Amino acid sequence: MNRLRRLTVLIISLIALGLIVPIGLAQSGSTSWSAPENFSQQPDGYSEAPTILCDPYQNAHAFWVERLDNNTASVLYYRSNVGGAWSPPLDVVMTGPVLSISAVLTPDDVAHVIGQTSYRGDLFHTQAALIEANDAKAWLDPVILAARVGTSNVFVDETGELYVLFDQPDDNNMVHTFYLLHSPDKGATWDEPMTLFTLNTPVPAAIPARIRVDGRGRFHFVYQIRSLQYGVYSLVGYRRSLDRGATWSPPLILASGNTSPGVDQIGVFTFGADELHLTWDQPERRHQWSFDGGETWSQPITIMELGAAFGGLNVLDKDSAGTLHVISAVGDGVYHATWDGQNWNPPELIDGRFIDPHNQSLAICEGNRLHVVYNDRTGETEVWYATRQVNAPRIGARPLPTPTPAPPPTSTPAASGPAAADATAAPTLSAISRQQPNYDATDSALPIVLGTVLVSALLIGAAGVHFIRSRS
Prior knowledge:
Largest sheet: 5 strands, antiparallel
Mean pLDDT: 84
Number of helices: 4
Number of strands: 29
Distance between the termini: 14 Å
């Protein structure tokens, strides 16, 4: 009996020391970053443009694009962790070529995804109720909203109304007119495009831009001018509107450059009624903030010293304790840091492989669970996922509510205006459903089961040895 007790104590000690720990269990309660895992699991495609969002019930939802057949076709993929484990990758919508996507969740628990077929290509929209998002048949066939689009971004205002920002460059890519599309019924129909303003550039350029809305309904617009010829000209700036886009403040130029690598990757993030944060690369990652809705600004500070391989936006989010987190990337690393209200703490490494990570996205669910996705461009060309629990109050996840049955909406493009007038006929786009890949060994609850079986086998074996010896 003493031997069995000693063996049992040894096994429990190994578990306590972390030498026998199921991978999934370690991730669920870990206070350090999990090892990056292949999230897209699509070796035959080129996985890119991931984004991850948290719903009001503290569940995470991820979207990305698979480029197929030399970029002649693309597939929108979706996963969620509703119920506690990540669902398998699901192909929900098939389209032609896709350059980029952005996604939001509206208060009626619907996921909206917009995408572009190319620079100066078509802008399309698709949607599905979250409760049905794991069924490809629930996703609407993409509808083209505008043509000749330079860049685009989707957002919601403080009331949950759905908007799309896009620009149309002239033939020389030196005059860019920005428009705002609004859906009064959360994606079912779209108003005519509203003209915001025109930005002129000294050289042919692209102007990625974004709008976020604070709790008082102020629109915050950020933009980055990047010359089509690399390194010739770049600029990042900010404007705001107090009347929902009717008029705009003069530009606040944050940084500019006319040599390589220049400045790039500006993002805007709002929290509550008045808190606002801007980030950009020059190439060190920079941060500036306002606590009065953009009326006054702090001096810019450095988030972390990283090189010129700009991976994507420095994405920000807050945990339930109010701590601000950032995820940033460079050619050979993905990093995380926290802000103390004045300065950024030293960064910690999430992924140190030389894979040229891009398009990092961060969502904080359950108050203290960080979810990060990003794609690599020189490795396996997959989307990768890492997670971490931080020291903040936990908010328990809840199941998605079942909505009252209603006829599904049918999206229609804007009736007129400069975007719709030049729109080409929509290509044949339809959802597809293929056999789903199996879970990886690090996915879902499988590691927990394997670890539990291992421990159970050791205990049962020890008990068996004791029983045989006791009868001999």
